[in-house]
Amino acid sequence: MAANELTRLQGALAIASFSAGVAIACVCLFLIHPHGEISNSAISIVSELLVLAGAILGVKTSFDVKFRRFENELRHKADKTTD
After folding, report:
1. Is the pTM of this model over 0.85?
2. Distance separating the N- and C-terminal Cα atoms of the chain
3. Cα–Cα distance for residue pair 4/7, rounded to 1 Å
4. Closest to 6 (Cα-Cα) out of 76, 68, 75
C-alpha cells in the first residue's frame, strides 16, 4: 500500500471513529430510553474511546501530510542547489 493511500485510510478511519463516538453518545444519551439498565458511564466510555481514536488518527494523519510536504520542499531545494 502506498503511503498516500495509507494516509487517506487513516483519515477516513479518524473521521469514522470520531463520528461513531459522537453518534453513540448523542443517540444513547439523549434519544433512546434503554430497555434495561445501561449505565451512562458505559456509554460515555465507549464514545470517549472512539473520539480519542479518531483524534489520535487525525493528528497522525495531519502530521504525516505536513511531514511529506516538508520533505518534498527540502528535496526540491536540494535539487536546485545541485543544478
Report:
1. no
2. 33
3. 5
4. 68
DSSP 54: H
> Cell 500500500 sits at which residue?
1
Report helix, strand or coil for 24.
helix
| Rounded Cα distance, 19 and 47, in Å | 9
Domain boundaries, the chain: 3-82
Pick from 76, 65, 67, 58: nearest CA to 5: 65
Local confidence pLDDT in tens for the 83 residues of the chain = 566 676 778 778 778 877 887 787 788 777 777 677 767 777 777 777 877 877 777 777 778 788 888 988 988 888 888 76
Is 49 within 8 Å of 74 (Cβ atoms)?
no
